Please model this.
Amino acid sequence: MNTVQNPAFADQGLLMLLEQAGDAELDALDFGVIGFDAEGVVRRYNAFESKAAGLSPERVLGHALFTVVAPCMNNFMVAQRFEDAQQASSALDDMIDYVLTLRMRPVKVRLRLLASPGAARRYVLVNRAP
Model:
């Protein structure tokens, strides 16, 4: 992400920037980043999301996003959109208002769902700002 200083949650081209970013660059972002592979296994997890969710990288990395890490997103609003995009071989870039129910403490967030047929990973971005 050397070409863009502090990309914003809603920036165009963010998927490509995330794919090129190193861990330190992801950790510098002011929103949560969860990157996962085609099998749904979390491969990238930034410091902002770790702190906000209270989950260490060791607890998240290498685990299934929608069944182990964040089962509250295993529904038609989030997980199914990634499945639909994959089946259609189409890009996904949706923003939705959502309520995370991690540890039964509801938290209002805005999610950005990013995927591209050619990208190695898919991303759920989490914006906790009002």
Notes: The first helix runs from residue 14 to 20.
